[in-house]
Amino acid sequence: MKGERIANRTDFTVLEDTEDYIVVDKPAPMLVHPSKPSPVPTLWDELRALLAYDITNGAHLSIINRLDRETSGVVLITKHT
After folding, report:
1. Which label site among 7, 39, 40, 75 has the fewest CB atoms less than 10 Å from its CB?
2. Which are the contacts of 23, defined by CB distance < 8 A and separation ≥ 6?
3. Rg (Cα) of the chain, in Å, rounded?
4. What is the pLDDT of residues 4-56, one digit of tens each?
5. Rounded to 5°, angle at Cα 40 from 34 and 46
6. How many other CB atoms sit within 10 Å of the CB of residue 22?
7. How far is residue 37's CA from residue 5's CA, in Å, rounded to a whole number?
8. What is the pTM assigned to this prediction?
């Protein structure tokens, strides 16, 4: 299943989703997380919405690598610390 696209989102593509982590392909110019309050959706906002069930059941999301807004690429997010 590695490398296979699991789900397409408007803002990003989920490349792999396991019990312990999720890997997404972040497009430019999407922000990874907000630096100040803003109505512009970020990857963090979208992940929290996508993984609401996991979070309700104890998941604690942690972004392992962060990309600049202008950079597209793979981002790894753990579901447990």
Report:
1. 39
2. 14, 15, 16, 17, 74, 75, 76, 77
3. 12
4. 545 545 579 999 999 999 999 999 999 998 888 878 889 999 999 999 999 99
5. 70
6. 22
7. 31
8. 0.81
